[in-house]
Design goal:
single chain; about 180 residues; alpha/beta; 7 strands
Length: about 180
């Protein structure tokens, strides 16, 4: 794959929490059109929300930023892939179970999708029989996209602040 220019392309965000919104901002910086789908759209996010099928049809890049639930399990599957352009690239740094790996492999093998970048898999560590292993135009990283030195320092700061706030009776990031 020779690569392609991001300027003028459409990125579809599935999930518009903090990370999804920041990724959208980065994409805008490259001159991309940003569309989004979220079960709970944020009216103050400054995003153009569309229905999920429309996002599949319009996007040149689809980036997943949502939790794994019964509803989102295999959100990317043979049916949704059929709606996508054959030039789409799928990025999953969220949860492995969002993607049906067999369907993604078949689409990559057939040339129906341009490519995929995945930092998460259905089975981690990666199983020897992972369908994406050796798939054309598929980059797999071992669930480390978040693990830069700066990110780890920031994470430790968040943990320390969570502990301080909890002990002060004002917890944040409640689960």
């Amino acid at each position: 794959c020779a690569g392609f220019d991001l300027h003028g392309k459409t990125v579809g965000l599935i999930g518009t929490g903090k990370i999804g919104r920041i990724f959208g901002d980065i994409c805008r910086g490259f001159g991309m059109k940003v569309i989004a789908y979220d079960k709970f759209p944020n009216p103050n996010a400054g995003l153009e929300y569309v229905e999920l099928e429309e996002l599949f049809r319009q996007s040149d890049i689809i980036s997943l930023h949502c939790p794994l639930t019964e509803e989102t399990h295999h959100l990317i599957n043979a049916e949704s892939i059929r709606l996508m352009k054959p030039t789409v690239t799928i990025i999953n740094t969220s949860r492995g179970g969002l993607v049906d790996e067999q369907a993604l492999r078949a689409a990559l093998d057939s040339g129906h999708l341009l490519g995929a970048g995945v930092d998460v898999l259905q089975v981690e560590p990666m199983a020897e029989d992972c369908p994406l292993l050796g798939a054309p135009n598929c980059l797999i990283t071992p669930h480390i996209a978040w693990a830069g030195v700066e990110t780890r320092h920031r994470l430790m700061g968040v943990v320390a602040e969570n502990i301080r706030r909890f002990l002060a009776g004002d917890p944040i990031n409640r689960v």
